[in-house]
Amino acid sequence: MSQQSFTQNPWSYWMKGDGPDSDIVVSTRLRIARNLSQLPFPLLATDSQAEEVVRKVSAAAKDEAMKNLADFELITMEQISPLEKRVLVEKHLVSPNLAEESRKGAVLLNREESISIMINEEDHIRIQVLLPGFQLNEAWETGSKLDDLFEKHLNYAFDEKRGYLTSCPTNVGTGIRASVMLHLPALVITQQINRILQAINQVGLVVRGLYGEGSEALGNLFQLSNQVTLGLAESDILANLYSVARQIIEQERVARRYLHEHSRTALEDRIYRSYGILLYARNVESKEAAQRLSDVRLGIDLGIIKGIPSNIINELLVMTQPGFLQHHAGQKLTPEQRDERRARLIRERLSTVTN
Amino acid sequence: MNCEECGKRPATLHLTKIVNGEKTEYHICEQCAKEADVFGGFSNFSINNLLSGLLNFDPMLKKEGAGAKDSQANQKPFRCETCGLTYAQFSKSGKFGCSDCYKFLGDRLDPLLRRIHGNIQHLGKVPERTGGQLKIRKELDQLKEALRKYVVSEEFEKAAEIRDRIRALEQRIAQS
Fold first, then answer.
1. Would B61 be classed as within a structural domain?
2. How far is B155 from chain A (nearest CA, A)?
3. Where are the domains of chain A?
4. pTM of the full predicted structure?
5. How far apart are CA A325 and CA A327, in angstroms?
6. Interface size between A and B, measured as CB pairs under 8 A
7. Which of left, alpha, beta for B124 (phi over 0: left; psi -120 to 50: alpha)?
8. Which of A95, A106, A165, B23 is most buried, most CB within 10 Å of its CB?
9. Same domain? B112 vs B92
10. Per-residue pLDDT tens for A147-183?
11. A273 vs chain B: nearest CA distance in angstroms?
12. Would you identify the CATH topology of the domain A4-255?
């Protein structure tokens, strides 16, 4: 295994396209923020202190029990190019913050790419578990186990009253942020989404776009996550998120059935048009690609388009991002060149599976 | 209304900026907005900016600034004795410098945490190894207090029992 496989290969475990409720829940992510006591947070750490954190965390990852769970490879942000960093961001393996703003930032990745341990992000340690489908408890179990194994070797910054101490007060307490990536085209088409999003904000959860904080909800993908980290046990945080996500999933299913029964032709027309465009277009912008891929995904999930595995859509979603396109091309590309390459890539990928 | 910048195209973007209570309005067309990059300053807007906004409205900060009339604890502006982070730095970045910042801020953090989380007290996981020690330390404090009481009331048999428990716990801490 090499660092290249992480940046060359468009495939990550979360893109498998299966797992529970995978017709709506693309992936589940769980992130645990931890810090070492005795060392300043990354904001104020000197270079040598930051290096010490990388050393300590990667040494702890060599624990025998840890090796049974995951065989990690360490990648430092200094050793890879800006394009390679961007690819890791587009695959959700590191945060934009770690890639662009960290000092001595590094990540421990397992071969499957289902676990990434970010070092020197906003906090010293961010354990991230990324799974396909709706698997909140599974993600927490793995994350919590990793947390325990790290704690065997590292002294965490913990306070009885405030819990796990984090660089930003929005993460203090449990330090966990759980999120599910939901594909909600029918709620968007039937214009129910805004009402739902407003309700979500009132129950202590947040919705964001595909690439996290500040990103747009491209391709009808919405990331639902918990806001509160202090004063609730992990199990309660997860249960809240689970029950709200479950309700949204049911609403989306109802809306899909409604569209399928009441405006079947219009729905099929929309899906087949997008499919046709992706099969034949010569220039596709990233926003259009996301939208068309969403339509085709809906078509696959409703059984209207047959013979295309839905993991292809996840793969294409990542492969058509600007960083991946350019890394694949081995050079920087203008937006026009990217649109052309994007169109070609989608065309080729879709025609190999349909023939 | 025509664009204030070029005066030719209709103004389609209406922006109101309020800085320190001073209101400025812009009415411009999309093209001029792109050229002038009026939204440029907003592109890096993040949760941390919001947080520092919350903090600046915080009564505890005002107290610190005004000083004089308040109790001693509030008069001293916050500065973390371990990492040296000041309140001004914290309210700018919305981030702490080290884990001791929480200790030195103490209860003064309550209003901010309540606003973010609706809670101020952690519930949930406790680190297995170091958390166990915390629990023992807490128990030790309680036992020592009980010991003192028994000694004062001259209940020496009970005091001896407690003393043995304290020794056992102290040994456990030393071993871990």
1. yes
2. 33
3. 4-255, 263-354
4. 0.79
5. 6
6. 129
7. left
8. A165
9. yes
10. 999 999 999 999 989 999 999 999 999 999 999 999 9
11. 31
12. Creatine Kinase; Chain A, domain 2 (3.30.590)
